[in-house]
Amino acid sequence: MQGYEDVTLYVLTEERERELLEKQIECNFIWTNKEGHGLGVIMNYVAKDGSIWLTATRQRARIKALQRDPRASVVISSMGTDMGPGKQITYKGRVKLHEDQATKDWFYPAMGAIISPYPAPTVEAAIEHLDTPLRVIIELIPEKASKFDGDKIAKASHEGTVPGAKS
């Protein structure tokens, strides 16, 4: 490989992955419609126990699509965090849909802390905003991850240590 073509050399470490998951609050959630087209939407998420947790109401097209085909992905970028741009993780996996009270009991406060003060001014108001009869909690269980740390490629570029790069 020449120059910057083999980006597998610039993988986000587990420590930086955890940092990104803690600092970022949004991801691009991607699913497939019945025609096979990939669709995505920006959503807030909670990272917990190795899964990515999101929520939507049952009437959303993505919920029907996930019931048909549970394969999905999330892309999480460092943009907008104090980590600066250029770091990203893509998780692909399958989803489980949850509607049980035990999941709601931990998820709503965790998500409420993330989304407050928008769209609700307090965590309590955010929980109330989330706790609706048609609400479904989506758990993406990662099966594979693609990770990239742009800081590593920038450092290699400045040091002149990019494999195969022409001087």
Structure description:
By secondary structure, this protein is α+β, with helices and mostly antiparallel strands. Helices cover 31% and strands 35% of the residues. A 7-stranded antiparallel beta sheet has the order 2-1-5-6-7-4-3, with helices on both faces. α3 crosses α4. The longest helix has 15 residues. It is globular, with a radius of gyration of 18 Å. The model has no long low-confidence stretch (mean pLDDT 91).
Identify the notable features of this structure and list them briefly.
single chain, 167 residues, alpha+beta, seven-stranded antiparallel β-sheet, 35% strand
Describe the structure concisely.
About 30% of the residues lie in helices and about 35% in strands. The protein is an alpha+beta fold and about 170 residues long.
Strand content: 25-35%
Tally of strands: 7
Biggest sheet record:
7 strands, antiparallel
Mean pLDDT: 91
Q: What does the overall shape look like? A: globular
Uncertain spans? none
SSE diagram, text form:
Elements: H1 14-23, E1 26-32, E2 38-44, E3 46-48, E4 51-57, H2 61-68, E5 71-77, E6 87-98, H3 101-115, H4 123-130, E7 135-149, H5 150-159
Antiparallel strand pairs: 1-2, 1-5, 3-4, 4-7, 5-6, 6-7
Helix pairs in contact: 3-4
